[in-house]
Amino acid sequence: MKQITIDPITRLEGHGKIEIFLKDDGEVENVYFQVPELRGFEKFCEGRPVEELAQIVTKICGVCPGCHHMASGKAADAVYGVEPPPTAKKIRELFYMAHFVHSHIAHFYALAAPDFVCGPTAPAAERNILGVINKVGVEIGTEVIKQRRIAQEIQALLGGHQTHVVLNIPGGVRKGLTEDQRKDIEEKAKGFIEFAKFSLKIFNDIVLANKTYVDIIVNGPYSLNLHSMGLVDDNNKVNFYDGKVRVVDTKGKELYKYAPKDYTEYIAERVEPWSYLKFPYLKKIGWKGFIDGQESGVYHATPLSRLNAADGMATPLAQAEYERMYSTLGGKPVHATLAMHWARLIELLYSAEHALELIRDPEITGKELRAPLTKTPSEGVGTVEAQRGTLTHHYVTDDKGIVVKANLIVGTTNNNAAICMSLKKAAQGIIKKGVKADDGALNMIEMAFRAYDPCFSCATHHRPGEMPLILNFRDASGNIIRTLRRK
Amino acid sequence: MPEDRICDDKKVLILGLGNDVLGDEGLGIYITEDLKNNRVFPQAEYKNTYTGGLNLLDYITGFDAVLIIDTTCGNDCQPGTIHQYSPRTFRETLHLSSEHDASFLTVLKTGKKLGFEIPGKVDIIAIEILRDLFLTEKFSDNISGQYYKIRSEIINFIKKIYDF
User: Fold this and answer.
1) Is residue A333 included in any domain, yes or no?
2) Is the pLDDT of residue A112 over 50?
3) Would residue A307 count as lying in a domain?
4) Which pTM value belongs to this model?
5) Can you tell me the ipTM of this complex?
6) Whose CA is closest to A337, among A112, A127, A181, A147?
7) How many domains does chain A contain in total?
8) A–B CB contacts, 8 A cutoff, strictly below
9) Has residue A267 been placed in a domain?
10) For residues A106 and A204, what is the distance between their CA atoms, to the nearest angstrom?
11) Do residues A422 and A449 lie in contact, with contact meaning Cβ atoms separated by under 8 Å?
12) Which of B56, B100, B130 to probe the A interface (max A CBs under 10 A)?
């Protein structure tokens, strides 16, 4: 048996490694996506006042600090049994929409677009945001940087800092909005909508208008027949901040719809000896292994799964794009992994539209920012949709509010099994006997997990060097017989 | 004055990178805070962050010069060793190598390409650490014991390259 190692993976937050085991005939036998780091953030939370956690958990990750801040804030509300007043809730949501705008812009243009704009097999040195700008022009590049910066500025204004967020306190938020600030954000939200529409046009013109790319998305080795998870509102529309968790099966039929506090009845986590990252699955179905299909317990929690799990989008322009995507790709649910990029852009448009709705709501400048805490703290669950999937924080405290137990199921963890399976399918489709596994082939395998926008740790983890991608070919005895090194 | 030295009338940023809940990885932001609080170089502006990638554009744009203080590991040398890089000699450090976003060099090139006011002078100090990935708010004994030596070396480096 031969073994191929991709370590570390490019354009992935945190350190991950792909091990590809080949049969003697050169075909792929198995693929393991390993996360070799142990973070232990839950233990780090123990012994701290629960109201501190919303600030501390932003340091889990520099990529989605706002998501952890929001889930933590909601969990702390639940610990104290308090519901924030409408103004506080809307300020939180407004912050969160800006967070989504920023993150989805960064993912599409810096991580996803290089594969399509520059080409999946383009030289690695060109497959980055600079390569995208070289292709689409400086004017568009400037707008990309400008819009994501504006989104960051809104987060900083509302949250005290764009990454070290200090917005949430149990029962509400620390500060409100003035009318001048409201007017300023309203103009910026209008700009987000135009930019989101423009981004969807780019996707349409560059990806959907290219038959080769559409064929890769629809017929390439990138589809998995999985159950889909996402938060929905009372009308079963996509919601990032609040609502119930809805799971639909591989055919789109509702399996479960539950309040976040009941998540342990529906989700269990499996441990594999070869990875520190757990593998959540649908508890009532059970773990049936790394298989897809209706009988599998594996689900995904991604932009695409959110759209699959919902009956639509809560804003008009995003709803129109939602209908167009499903119409184009053959109806609901969609199982094409690379369609996550399209779903992400539809979510970008929804975030922009919803930000405008929120900033035009008269309650957004209200003065009641916090509900009083009157109950003894005990236990609470906070769930939001992170950009990378459903994010749950669960805290148990003593009667003084000191955390005695914490459990976090982060967005990417939901997708751990799905990512492994996507990689295996991509590798089996791309690495064939007699076909050279060159840089382009490796990138096309990486595209399988990049669609998930995976993120595994609190900061970048990399040894010095120019982001090498190492490919080791091993013989049946484990000896390296050939090494390819990408710099 | 050497050609690449920076005068008093230029805007200089000292940017600390790190994560203060990851022990020695927070060294860059700790030292930056130390220099700021003790007004060691009052001419400079100070910022801290643990993000990388395109976010760094928001921090560095508009300055004439930027000095980044970060950590690094795996260079086959003792913890506490100070590496000095410029964009020409750059090697990725722990927080300048976002795989989830653009790399630091790509960020600099992108900023220049788009006509942003990217600092004309960029220097990077990377302090070697042993990376154990334990969540802790304390430095290792090794780094704690060397802290004032490291601080002193960095101050001397700044004095050498800037005309403060």
Assistant:
1) no
2) yes
3) no
4) 0.88
5) 0.78
6) A112
7) 1
8) 129
9) no
10) 18
11) yes
12) B100
